[in-house]
Structures are given as C-alpha cells and as structure tokens.
Backbone:
C-alpha cells in the first residue's frame, strides 16, 4: 500500500460545550459528549491509535481506571493507547468555567505498568521543561 492509499480518520471527544479548538478543522468528527457516553455510542468501533492525554486525572480514581480498561478494549490488534497525566497531584479547579477541568485523582506509573503499559516517562522525575508528567504506552497484542 502506498502513502496515497492510506486512510486516516481523526476523531475527538469533548464534553464541554463552550470549548472550541481551531485544530478541530483537521478532524473528521468531534463528538460533543462524555467519554463514557462515547464508549457506549461507539460500541463495536475499534481504533488503531487512541490518545488519552491529560484526561484521566479529571475522573475519580476507579472511574478513570475503568475508562482506561475500556479504551484498551477498543484497540485493533497492534493498536496503541498513549496516556499522559500529571506525575504529581496538582490541585486544579474549574478552569474557564468548566467544572470538568477539576483534578479528581492521581495515578502512579505502576497504575499503568500493572495493566501492561510501558511507562515512557516516570512523572515523579522532573523533565527538561520542569514538568512532572507520566506518559505510558499500551500496544494491543
């Protein structure tokens, strides 16, 4: 298959109705619903790649881990799920009038490695940008 034959579909999920992103012009679809609703509505849909970036900390711990497991199940064989989250608990309230921006939980690198993820960056260590962030990658075998 040549590069011209490859097909790419980019979708996003955003529950906060007042949020708009200029990059969405490059998406095929932006679903205006919660990730929990999207997982129900997108039943049977599988993905090559899922980016769950700076999202999981906005859920209570058990709910976040449940969503993570559900996302893992949405991957095609060989599909990749990448997660990033603060490497330390960072207090954050409702930003820009968005109650969904509150940080409700914290995740250790072991929360990911115990589920088959490879931890690419241990957020307990500061990086060159003076950030503490955990990044983990799961590949569906």
Residues:
């Amino acid at each position: 298959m040549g590069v011209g034959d490859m097909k790419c579909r980019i979708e996003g999920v955003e529950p906060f109705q007042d949020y708009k992103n200029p990059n969405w012009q490059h998406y095929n679809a932006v679903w205006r619903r919660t990730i929990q609703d999207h997982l129900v509505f997108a039943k049977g849909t599988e993905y090559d790649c899922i980016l769950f970036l700076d999202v999981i900390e906005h859920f209570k711990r058990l709910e976040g881990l449940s969503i993570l497991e559900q996302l893992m199940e949405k991957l095609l064989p060989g599909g990749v799920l990448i997660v990033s989250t603060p490497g330390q608990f960072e207090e954050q309230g409702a930003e820009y009038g968005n109650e969904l921006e509150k940080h409700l939980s914290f995740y250790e690198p072991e929360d990911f490695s115990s589920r088959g993820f490879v931890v690419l960056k241990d957020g307990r260590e500061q990086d060159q940008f003076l950030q503490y962030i955990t990044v983990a990658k799961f590949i569906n075998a």
Q: What stands out?
A: Residues 16 and 38 are 14 Å apart (CA to CA).
